[in-house]
Amino acid sequence: MNKTSTKQPAGPVLDIRDLVVELPGPDGERLRALDGVDLTVRRGEIVGLAGESGSGKTMTALALLGLLPHGGSATGRMLVDGDDVLEMTPRQVRDLRGNRVAMVFQDPMTSLHPMLTIGKQLTEHLRHHKKLDKRAANARAVELLATVRIPDPETALGRYPHQFSGGMRQRIAIAIALACDPALLLADEPTTALDVTVQAGILRLLDRLRRENDLSVLIITHDLGVMSALADRVCVMYAGRIVESGPRADVLRAPRHPYTRGLLDALPHPGGGTAALLPIPGSPPKLGQAPAGCAFHPRCPHAEQSCREDTPTLLSLTPTHAGACPIDPLAVAVPEVSAP
Ligand SMILES: Nc1ncnc2c1ncn2[C@@H]1O[C@H](COP(=O)(O)OP(=O)(O)O)[C@@H](O)[C@H]1O
Ligand SMILES: [Mg+2]
After folding, report:
1. Which of 82, 94, 154, 323 gives 244 a disulfide partner, CB atoms 3.0 to 4.6 angstroms apart?
2. How far apart are the first and last CA of the chain?
3. Looking at residue 340, what is its pLDDT?
4. In DSSP terms, which residues pair with 315 in a beta bridge?
5. Pocket residue to mutate for ligand 1, from 29, 55, 64, 235, most atoms within 8 A of Cβ
6. Ligand 1, closest atom to CA 284?
7. Does residue 133 register a pLDDT over 90?
8. What pLDDT, in 10s, does the model give residues 146-199?
9. Distance CA 162, CA 142 (A)
10. CATH class of the domain defined by 10-90+218-289+313-331
């Protein structure tokens, strides 16, 4: 896929600053789903956004696409190639969604129509967004299916989604997402529904697309293992805030935040069996029920009195690695586990 546009702004593809998203609560109160999120994706970079279910990962992507739940509101800045999404008209946001930012979901059937052939879905998209004529759209559709490694693309165009496996369907959903030459691909749990070998294939595909097409990717996942295969940088989210961010190796090998460490300890180790799993006790707070201070403190083995009072901000450890915890986990002895 060749980029036809010569316009390539110098800054990051995505620059989110102090994004606050509020949703209406049952009694009309405003509940904070995102509480000051900062997130940057540079050109050609794959950034992983990790965290347990309910942390606000999907909400971040939906805010960016102007697709908040009914009654939701967003403040802050969300720059895509320098243009603030929060200042765009609804029409400009729709254009952005079709052309500059594309999304793939956990379930590829979310973006595939079950009753239409793959060819119809791809070419409609190309004719509508790219204004290609029928023949050019067909040729481009074949090219896109080949890019995502669908075998025999010409024949595949005449098939329906259900005639493909889950992994192949996800490849097709990625092809549709790529149809408009987006600068940024948001991939929300794109491999969660797939088995491990198929998952690895999709991750390799995203990596290749980034290298060959200069695509920038924000990959959202609850699974830090997925990050270790792919992401250049990792951001960890908890209760609507980024609690750690940095280059993959730094975050995964020397996590600063006890939450990141907890997520890593909960990962199955190769050959370790299930005994190696150490899940984080408790569960993340529900919307609007985050405790005062650091939202993670009730689950944190290192929590001190100050953690119950002060909300920590991201502190730089190195110029590129930051964590929102004033306590150095390496300097703190692991407390004894008290009997329940
Ligand atoms: N449509 C919605 N209406 C109300 N609350 C929602 C909706 N979608 C998500 N939430 C809440 O917003 C918070 C963030 O959710 P989400 O971004 O989906 O988390 P994640 O993708 O990290 O699992 C959670 O507390 C969730 O319950
Ligand atoms: Mg989600």
Report:
1. 323
2. 58
3. 43
4. 323
5. 55
6. 25
7. yes
8. 999 999 999 999 999 999 999 999 999 999 999 989 999 999 999 988 888 899
9. 19
10. alpha beta
Distance (Å, rounded) from C-alpha 187 to C-alpha 209? Answer: 13
Give me the pLDDT at residue 1, please. 43
- How far, in Å, from the CA of 26 to the mean position of ligand 1? 15
Q: Alpha helix (H) ranges present in the chain?
A: 57-64, 90-99, 118-130, 134-147, 153-156, 166-178, 196-213, 224-230, 248-253, 258-265, 305-309
Query: Largest alpha-carbon pair distance within the chain?
Result: 70
Q: Which tokens sit at 251?
A: 């975050």
Residue 225 burial (C-beta neighbours within 10 Å; 0-12, 13-18, 19+): middle
Q: Are 250 and 322 in contact (CB under 8 A)?
A: no
Averaged pLDDT of the chain: 91
What pLDDT score does 339 carry?
43
Q: Which atom number of ligand 1 is nearest to the Cα of residue 62?
A: 17
The residue-averaged pLDDT of 16-29 equals: 96
What is the helix, strand, coil percentage profile of the chain, to 5? 35, 20, 45
For ligand 1, residues with CB inside 6 Å are 23, 33, 51, 53-59, 69, 286-287
pLDDT, residue 10, reads: 76
3-state class (DSSP) for residue 100: coil
pLDDT of residue 243: 97
3-state DSSP call for residue 60?
helix
Q: Which of 275, 217, 245, 258 is nearest to 38 (CA)?
A: 245
How many angstroms separate the Cα of 116 from the Cα of each of 146, 152, 193? 20, 19, 22
| Ligand 2 is an ion; residues with CB less than 5 A from it | 58
Average pLDDT of the segment spanning 2-7: 47
Domain segments of the chain: what residues?
10-90+218-289+313-331
Smallest CA separation from ligand 1 atom 3, residue: 69
